Amino acid sequence: MTKAQLVDLFLDNLSGGDAPDDVRGKYHPLVIAKYIDVAYAQFLSETLKVSQANLDFLNMDYFRKTFTGISIQKDSNRNEYYSEIPVPIVELPNQESLVVHPDNDPVSQFTPHGSGGADAVFGVLEVHYHNSSNSYRLENNKVYYPGMGDDSCKVTMRLIPMFSAFENEDEIYLPTGGEARMYDLTIQTMLRKRAIPEDINNNNTAE
Amino acid sequence: MSITNEVIENSSINKTQNNASLKSIRYVVMSYLNRKGQYTLSNYKRLEQIALEGLTELNLYDLETVEVAYLTMNEIGIIPFPSDMVDYTKVGIPSGGRIYTLTVNEDIIEPRYSKCGDEIFDPNHNKANLDTTGGYYFADHFRGNRYVGGLYGVSGGSNVAYVKIDRQRRQFLFEGNVPRSEIILEYISTGVKQDGSTMVPTEALEPLRRWIDMIVTENTPRASESAIARTTRAFEVALEKMRHFISLPTADEYRDKFYESLTQGIKR
Prior knowledge:
The complex is a heterodimer of chains A (about 210) and B (about 270). Chain A has about 210 residues and is α+β, with helices and mostly antiparallel strands. Chain A folds into two domains: about 5-60 and about 165-195, no CATH class; about 65-160, no CATH class. Chain A has helices at about 5-15, 30-55, 60, 120-125, 125-130, 180-190, and strands at about 65-70, 75, 80-85, 100, 110, 135-140, 140-145, 155-160. In chain A, the strands form two sheets. A five-stranded mixed sheet of chain A has the order 2-3-7-6-5, with no helix packed on it. A three-stranded antiparallel sheet of chain A has the order 1-8-4, with no helix packed on it. In chain A, α1 crosses α2 (about 30-55) and α2 packs across α6 (about 180-190). Chain A starts with a helix and ends in a 15-residue tail after the last helix. With about 270 residues, chain B is an alpha+beta fold. Chain B folds into two domains: about 20-65 and about 195-250, no CATH class; about 65-190, no CATH class. The longest helix of chain B is centred in the last third of the chain and has 23 residues, at about 225-245. The radius of gyration of chain B is 26 Å and the shape is flat. The N and C termini of chain B lie far apart (about 75 Å). The relative contact order of chain B is 0.18. The interface between A and B is medium-sized, with 33 and 35 residues.
């Protein structure tokens, strides 16, 4: 199912029938797409938890999109090499949403370096110079490569984009039963909007 | 170490250079991840460091890892310790296919004079060119098909070169005449190579995997005592199996030891 078809399906559902009164026919397709965006991230998070519990990570591969031939550039201020992530990605635990490896060499996958104090900790340990793998550090929409010496190679990124990063004609792969769960999550997200009181002043009177 | 295409290619080679007797550290970590069913590399560096520490422990107490390095000293006679050296067993010079060990001389002055952050010898200190005193020099020659060196009548206890172990600065200091400034160093190694070429003997694989499991479990928040005890026990069993494997002699070694104890008696 393409992104456009998914949004249309949700729009159709929300325009009548079984949709709760609070949300029925009230939303523009672009607004619905935004809500699906939130629900999609929630859905991915739930799927990852199930994958971790069952030690079955193949499910996560359905959501990945592959970008090859991504160039490496130099940040002259920091004297480090980096690549730009082509589309915004969902932030999942353990950087599950991003896999980076040199083009045509998936075995030499880059390992996440961690951020914060990781540089300082690893910097004085044997693993810093042992160099049995090439690592990367995620910073916003960029991937930095600590220790990289030149920009001569190209990289492949297999990443899980945010729903909003998909084009209308892009195929959205959902596991069996995923559409219904996505619909439920989207409705829940829309209904949550009403949980915020319009008048935030509380005068301690029951009204 | 900077990562270039060449290094990426080399590291790719290292990853596939596993054979029956030696495996790479990467292999050990990947093998552990596979056992855990974790097909994500998010903790790879942490696990690799734990594996390297485990390998160092095994090398210190169980594995027989004696390394040999051919090292060249700088102009003032200093050679830094190899990064993986725990302690030395021999420091010598090559001659005739054998290693001649140098004598330790505690009187060699240690360089503690700093220039631009680099330690050098005190400029007022003239590096001694140690000539053996008391002997007589003449040309090397052969006499009666025997080689006679060019030094005669030297008193005992002198050597052509001396070494001092400067542990504080992790370096060797040399004095005297060392041919080609090259020495041979035999040392006990941690087994961890700076160039990433660290290899693990097959018999150490299981203890190392169990070591990683034990350390990870120990440091997992809210890990149960029974889980910690179980992983510790598993590591100890694996360690014992490795010790058993290492201590087994070959058939020839056993026969040599057996024959050594035999003496010929009177035939009756």
